[in-house]
Amino acid sequence: xxxxxxxxxxxxxxxxxxxxxxxxxxxxxxxxxxxxxxxxxxxxxxxxxxxxxxxxxxxxxxxxxxxxxxxxxxxxxxxxxxxxxxxxxxxxxxxxxxxxxxxxxxxxxxxxxxxxxxxxxxxxxxxxxxxxxxxxxxxxxxxxxxxxxxxxxxxxxxxxxxxxxxxxxxxxxxxxxxxxxxxxxxxxxxxxxxxxxxxxxxxxxxxxxxxxxxxxxxxxxxxxxxxxxxxxxxxxxxxxxxxxxxxxxx
Length: 250
Description:
8 helices, 38% helix, alpha/beta, globular
């Protein structure tokens, strides 16, 4: 498995190096209710069947960093589908990101993601019994919602996404869950993380949360000029790599 040391490099160089070990991205569409979902598909080397991952973007949309992360997972042996919940729109500032997030109906977002799981399950390169999801920020919250809506998922990684609190919803989660959070995050507090973890454990669910004491929201994103924490990001993303290797690889 590739290390996460390269996270300190420029995004362009990361994309270049990862593309040597993963096939070029493919724009794909798939049925989603009465509409059409879309995303970028990355295929690993070899015929498979491979484990698969749904990658869920932040409130910014399908940025270069999200594409980099998707390419990373494909390079490590996963069929990876980065779902574009905004269907082509990418925010250029926080105000636009806020409007795009508010304009995304939650049921549409969850439907696109569950439809993406079905799309992957039908592909010959994919082992349908080894599908997981990973998300950041808004995408982390949607990763939680996908875990509830798609109980066939095997593993879900959440990076500073809002956890569900309803025990009935939590009871529907059958995937192993790992979470990375910042203690200085004013939106998703350590108390909320602890409450989620306690509730999951009371239901006998597998969960592994880590709170980074000096990190705030979006600390893993290298384009976050004021809040990026390189050491914490490398540790958190490395934890996710190891988690998927343990839960999705045979």
